[in-house]
Amino acid sequence: MTAGVAVRTPAAGTAKRARPVRLRSALTRFSALGWTVAGLVLASTVWSLVVATGRFPRQLFPSVPQILSAGHALWADGLLLDDISASLSRAALGFAIGAAIGVVVAVLTATTAAGRNLLQPVLRVFAPIPTIGLVPLAILWFGLGENSKTLVIALGVFVPVWINSHSGLASTPADYLKAARCLGAGPWQTLRRVVLPEAAPDIAAGLRVGAAMAFVLIVVAEMTGTTAGIGYRIYQAQLFSQADRLIFCLIVLGILGALCDLAVNAVTTPFTRWAQEEH
Questions:
Q1: Does Transport show up as a keyword for this record (predicted)?
Q2: What's the CATH code, domain 62-278?
């Protein structure tokens, strides 16, 4: 080997290629955070300008400082953390039940003849029914306790999870199924190694929509038969015309929903990375 001639080893080349990838990933995360902050600042500015016009009553259209002050009062009274904890536990339980049943039923309706012929027609009739319309029925069946709230949230989560999961599972390319059969794969192996991985992006999308739906329905579920929760606090603020407290609770609900969406996305990303790499 000639002295003074640098030789690039494969490991060194890989390390040099990995550094720009990590840098781009970090810049992407920073950019997303920066745009989020910028969007919030813009929304606050527009809201403040509308309040400054004086065209709306301050009691019904509070300023940003008034909204923050209402949130501080909830925190000082020790109510905010209890409300967040109660709503998160209800939303998480309802989401877990609805999502699990949605995926299992989607497997049945997409991969079995009995599911397609018996379950799917019934579910297509049930799916368009607004979940809010089932609240009175849930209360009749389970009363005003936690069971009725869990049922309402689970039903609302089930529908988007089932629809998205069924769509992904039923659209597995026929060539993939033929190749699996030619290689001697049985029904269970085909489902586990071919159908589920192929449908993973659609299942993940359904889970994210279901998580958002859980936080939409938590407001309705907590309006009756409870004394804690973000939905309960929103209902009380509406009764007593406390617009500043109501808006603050809506913001908290939005933040919780966004954080849960990020969590679901982080959990499902390892199973859908192949689809992201294709694009």
A1: yes
A2: 1.10.3720.10
